[in-house]
TrEMBL record, chain A:
It comes from the Bacteria. The lineage of its organism: Bacteria, Pseudomonadati, Pseudomonadota, Gammaproteobacteria, Cellvibrionales. It comes from Microbulbifer okhotskensis. This is Uncharacterized protein.
From TrEMBL, chain B:
This is Uncharacterized protein.
């Protein structure tokens, strides 16, 4: 029987404070008066931006590496990804074991219904003031195998990267 | 070949944006009606297919992103509900830009190897009427619309599908080279390539010289993002080109280097629907 384990946390600082920042993301050029009016009409996110695109991808790559090093047999990993991406994303995101979506909920419900073993990394980390988000990240692991070691390794990584309020619980509500 | 194009439709979207009245939610409400209408038309065009066997509907996009990322609209807004489409959208994928349709197919075929039918829609509409999306140096003039495909999987082991990414940043030339390698020795294949203006198109003209291709339709439609190779097939179909079985290689390349290709069979029983612009 499959169990879904949830691991969540809130980013409270830049995950790589001692690293030089590469600010190379390309953003949409605004030229005409109407461009500025259209962009100004979008909702504004007041949540602080704590990382840039490159750091966001580095964070996710590190989590994927930890998952890859675990012995769990996983059918698919879903990544929640906001667009625009600012540039080309890492190769690790483009393999056939990963699917990136803007909203993972629909796809996750299908995987659950079909009895797949899967992992979801759903974050709401804004990388630009255009983007919505509350700096939260949740990993959901649905498998018949024990995921305890993986959860511990992921939690350790998140803490090292500046996440706080780390919570782990199973679908039956035990913490 | 093992993917068979049962039905394909395209509706140009030229007038729906915030400049023509209403905000982004209002504009997208009109789009949702078009998605529902086109989904129903495509399914209805093949009454011999048991609609309950079409179990997934991916909606892909290249340039509808900021309205979602800023939460001006949400994924639930994709589906018109009164009444719902015969097969509502189950997943929205824009992460792979113009190659999102190929990555969606790859995911589906891997996760559901027993399935027979899949529906993929490709939507690009300049909801915010941003000048960058109207025209720029990367692809010239843009074209907008909704493309919907109903694909039959005839033999999964024979599916020829590539979803990958360029190694270099000279992406179009690298993409053309990859295609050249794919089709070498395959005289039965006709290429359906993305639409580009002449200055970019010449990369294909030169590197894919001597290989059968559908005509570039940039002058007529502009660059319609991931829809291009399918819109070209639809145009040829509507004009009656496919009087016998034809194997096509649909190809898309994204600005950030993601690309996809797939072989697809069309024949006289394939349905092609080209609507008036809305």
């Amino acid at each position: 029987m499959k169990t879904t384990v949830r691991l969540s946390g809130v980013l409270e600082r830049n995950p790589y404070p001692l690293s030089p920042k590469v600010c190379e993301a390309r953003m949409l050029p605004l030229k005409e008066e109407s461009d500025f009016i259209a962009i100004s009409a979008l909702p504004v996110n007041t949540c602080p931006v704590l990382l840039n695109h490159t750091e966001h991808y580095r964070l996710l790559e590190e989590l994927l590496q930890i998952i890859e090093q675990s012995s769990l047999s996983i059918d698919i990993i879903l990544l929640r990804m906001q667009m625009p991406a600012g540039g080309r994303m890492p190769k690790a995101f483009l393999t056939d074991s990963v699917l990136m979506l803007h909203d993972v909920v629909g796809e996750e419900s299908i995987l659950l219904r079909e009895g797949k073993s899967y992992i979801v990394i759903e974050d709401s980390l804004p990388r630009h003031p255009f983007e919505s988000g509350s700096n939260q990240l949740e990993v959901r692991i649905s498998t018949a195998e024990s995921s305890q070691l993986l959860v511990e390794a992921l939690a350790k990584q998140l803490i090292e990267c500046g996440f706080a309020n780390i919570k782990m619980y199973t679908m039956d509500g035990t913490t | 070949m093992s993917l068979y194009l049962r039905s394909a439709a395209f509706t140009p979207i030229e007038t729906i944006n915030i400049s023509t009245g209403g905000g982004v939610p209002d504009a997208f409400g009109k789009i949702a009606i078009i998605i529902k209408s086109q989904t129903d038309r495509v399914i209805s065009s093949v009454p011999e297919i048991d609609a309950t066997k079409i179990d997934r509907h991916f909606l892909c996009s290249t340039m509808i992103e900021l309205p979602f990322s800023s939460l001006a609209i949400r994924e639930r807004d994709l589906n018109f509900t009164k009444p719902p489409a015969k097969l509502p959208v189950t997943s929205f994928i824009n992460t792979y830009e113009c190659a999102s349709w190929g990555y969606s197919l790859r995911h589906y075929l891997k996760q559901r190897p027993d399935s027979t039918y899949i529906m993929v829609s490709i939507l690009d509409a300049n909801l915010m009427d941003l000048s960058f999306w109207r025209s720029n140096e990367n692809w010239g003039t843009s074209g907008f619309g909704l493309c919907t495909l109903l694909i039959e999987v005839r033999n999964l082991s024979l599916v020829t599908l590539t979803a990958s990414c360029a190694i270099t940043y000279n992406t179009t030339a690298e993409f053309a080279t990859v295609i050249r390698k794919m089709v070498t020795g395959r005289d039965d294949l006709t290429l359906s390539l993305p639409f580009f203006p002449e200055n970019i198109r010449q990369i294909f003209t030169r590197l894919l010289n001597g290989i059968e291709k559908l005509p570039d339709l940039h002058d007529r439609w502009g660059h319609c993002f991931g829809s291009d190779p399918w819109l070209n097939i639809i145009c040829q179909g509507v004009e009656g080109r496919f009087t016998q079985e034809e194997n096509l290689l649909a190809c898309s390349i994204a600005l950030n280097g993601y690309y996809c290709t797939t072989e697809v069979l069309v024949d006289t029983k394939s349905n092609f629907l080209l609507s008036e612009a809305v």
